[in-house]
């Protein structure tokens, strides 16, 4: 096999993995992901607590207390 064939065979799983990740994390809605997890025998992902969703600037967590000057 030529070098181009080996490179193509090495790239295909990388691209398929990236496509699967994008579909799983970005495209599929949460109910579909939860159903697929249940079908695979895995528990549902923990639900986020009500309120702050992370660094959203709501005054808690890792949001800065004052705006940074640039």
TrEMBL record:
Transmembrane segments: 6-28
Keywords: Membrane, Transmembrane, Transmembrane helix
Organism domain of life: Bacteria
The protein, known as: Uncharacterized protein
Source organism (scientific name): Rhodospirillum centenum (strain ATCC 51521 / SW)
């Amino acid at each position: 096999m030529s070098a181009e064939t080996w490179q193509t065979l090495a790239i295909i799983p990388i691209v398929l993995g990236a496509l699967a990740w994008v579909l799983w994390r970005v495209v599929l809605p949460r109910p579909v992901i939860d159903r697929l997890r249940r079908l695979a025998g895995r528990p549902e992902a923990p639900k986020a607590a009500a309120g702050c969703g992370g660094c959203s600037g709501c005054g808690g967590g890792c949001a800065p207390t004052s705006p940074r000057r640039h």
